Amino acid sequence: MDFHYTVVTDKTIDEAISSIEHNLKENKFGVLWQLNLTETLQKKGVSSYTTPYRILEVCNPVEAGRVLSHNSLVGYFLPCKITIYEEKGKTKIGLPKPTAMIGLLNDTELESIAQEIEKILIGVLEKSK
After folding, report:
1. pTM greater than 0.85
2. Does domain 4-128 have CATH number 3.30.310.70?
């Protein structure tokens, strides 16, 4: 099983992010924070990395509360990440699969919730490409 799910789009990074934000909102998720990794690395003196790369930290507060109430260790995996980056002239949108992360805790109830979240987030990626 791959730990990630990634799609390719013809959209620019900014267009993809706009689409992702819209589609997340339709599913009761929101962007908590956005990191422009390329810009941050360059500000830290790493001028050699120029590939556009953005990371969105996304969350559904109700689901986050539900899984944290069940097991505090889930906080190690929150919030969910969605990455948007360029590779070989194409924009890619990806995420680490919640099932891969939660699977580390060996808890069937949490795995079931992670499957639901993963299905929603994969739908967001597919609709956003």
Report:
1. yes
2. yes
